[in-house]
Amino acid sequence: MTKKHYCLIVVMTFNLACSPYRTINNPIPPLDISEHFSSKSVGEAGQSQEKQWWITFNDSVLTQFVTTALSSNFNIQAAWARIHQAKSLLAQVGAARWPQISLSGRGVHSHRAFEPETQGISKEQADLFGFADSITTNTFMGSIGVRYEVDLWKRASSQTKAAMLDKQALHDDLMTMSMSIAAEVCEVWFDIIGQHALIRLLEKQIQTDRHFVDLINIRVHQGLVGSLDLYQAKQQLVATQAQLILAQTAAQNARHRLALVLGQMNTEIPITDEDMILPTLPKRPLVGVPADLLLNRPDVRASRRRAEAADYRVAAAVAARLPSISLEGSIGTQLAFAENLLMTPFWNIASSLLAPIFQGGRLAGIQDQQEAIHQERMADFGNTLLRAVVEVEMALVAEKQNGLYLQALTQRLDLVRHSLHEARTRYNQGLGDFLAVLTSLNTLHSVEQSIISVQRQILSSRIQLHRALGGTLNDGKSPS
Q: Which SS3 state, helix, strand or coil, does residue 47 take?
């Protein structure tokens, strides 16, 4: 077979390369997506989702903490390491698409005795013609070899595409983790602010409780009331003091949680406790439609890419059951040093065909396994998208209902204050007992604390809404 014939085979092979399995790019979700969110009115106004949505809270300290967390958090660093691993794996898998070129060299030194009698030469003839008693030969050979497996059924291309999709999915995982960490920083920071707001409230409530204890103590000494009223007032005071201890503990633990998410042992808060005030809820971002989550939610994108990667691995498994063609060639030279220098150049070209006939069902089992993995990835894709839609719905419901709850608590606070004033007036006039005053006071404390808690929950609902809507936070650069 001539060189022209080999070149013709290579060209025809490249032209005929195709996959017997048809993959689907950007697979369709295995569930019906509604046209709009049920918890949002069609045409409802809002503002576009900010890339760095936490800046909408207008808190410079929070912005500083989020920036630190996105660069220093150890989970972020681990995610970057996984991306680097996937990049290296992609290079390994993609190498199958290229020719494998190798350089080889060999040197041989041989020495053997020469016996004329064994060659049918007498000793006199050997002396006459000057034959040596031994022969020494040095042989050196060098060659460059090339081997290439023709990607006839796009097996290597499918494996490379799958590895590339896996790498892109890990980038999406990094985006998901970045959004989760940004949300966690916001949650922890507002927990710290909320606990300090609660501490300030409890300190005021303790002053109020002490005031009641002092007043009743005077009335007891005057013989106007019994000691039962005094014990009840002191019980209320001790209960509020116990709540203060719990709030202080929660505030300290929140600071430790902040250090953990920031990836730092010691975290200094650059503002005083008195300046820690829960921010006003900013304007809500545009929610869009559920189909937007296919592009905006990084976890949905990652799940979709992994489903597509599994489809390409099915294509690779199908191709592995079909014949393969390999081309090999080498060129080199051989140098032999004896009495004279002998140089012998050489080259060769070869091709081989390998067709699996019987392997005990191994290749069929691999294909079945990859098809089952693809089905699993598609189910994960559908579940991830459904969870994303539900998270947006839940965040919308939580923000709306907590807002209504806060309005109800505000109205109740006004009524409780009037109730306490009336109960205290009647008690001072001797028309009522202290139990009514104590009940109204306890209710007032509870409502005031609930208002702080609900204000904190409303902010949490907004944080979760931003997280549920998705987007891109990281600029794609690995931290140093």
A: strand
